[in-house]
Amino acid sequence: METLQKEDHRIGRIGWLRAAVLGANDGILSTASLVVGVTAANASRAEVLLAGVAGLVAGGMSMAAGEYVSVSSQADTEKADLKRERHELETDHAGELVELAEIYVDRGLTPSLAEEVAGQLMEHDALAAHARDELGISVVTTARPIQAALTSAFSFAAGALLPLLIIAASPQPSVVSVATASLLFLALLGALAARAGGAPMIRASLRVTLWGALAMALTAGVGALFGLAI
Prior knowledge:
By secondary structure, the chain is an all-alpha fold. It has one domain (about 10-230). It contains 7 helices and no strands. The longest helix is centred in the first third of the chain and has 47 residues, at about 45-90.
C-alpha cells in the first residue's frame, strides 16, 4: 500500500502565529503612536527615546500578562470540560456512544455507519474522540498559556524596537519620518503574517496600515495640542 505524504496545514501554526502577529503589530503600533505623540509635543530626542523605551517595557509585560491570563482562562475551561466528559464516560458509556454517533449522523453519515465509527473511536480513545468531535478541543487548538505569553512579549519587543531604531538613527526625528517608517513596518508585518497564514497579502497589509495611520494621526493630534498648551 502506497504511503501518502503528510500534508502541512497552516492551522497548526495558529497557536503561536496569532500571539506573534498580535504582539508585533501592537509593539509597532503602540510604540510608534507613543513616540509620534511625544514628538508632536515638541519633546527632545532623549525624551522621545525615554518614552519609547518605557512603552516597550510596559507594553511587553502587559502583553505577556494579558495573554497568559486570557489563555489560562481558556485552558481552565478546557480542563473543566474534559473532566466533566471523563466523568460522563465513566458513568454513562452507552449514552456517550449514542451522543457521539448522533454527531456523526448530523455530519452526514448513515446511522449504522455512525454507530460503527463512534464505537471504534471510543474503543481507541473515548475521551479524545469526544474532546475533538463534541467539544472541539484538539492538539492543534488547545490552549498553551506560557507559549502565548512568551511569544507575545518577545514579538511585542521586536516590533517596538523598530520605531525606536528610527528615532535613534535620526539626528532630528520628525513625526513624518517616524510615522512613514512605522507604517511601512506595519504593511510588511501584515504581508508576512498573511503569507504565513495563507491569506491574501495585499488586503492584510492595507488593513493593518489603515488602522496604524488612524492611531498615529490621533496621537499626533493629541501631542500637538499638548505641545501648544505647554
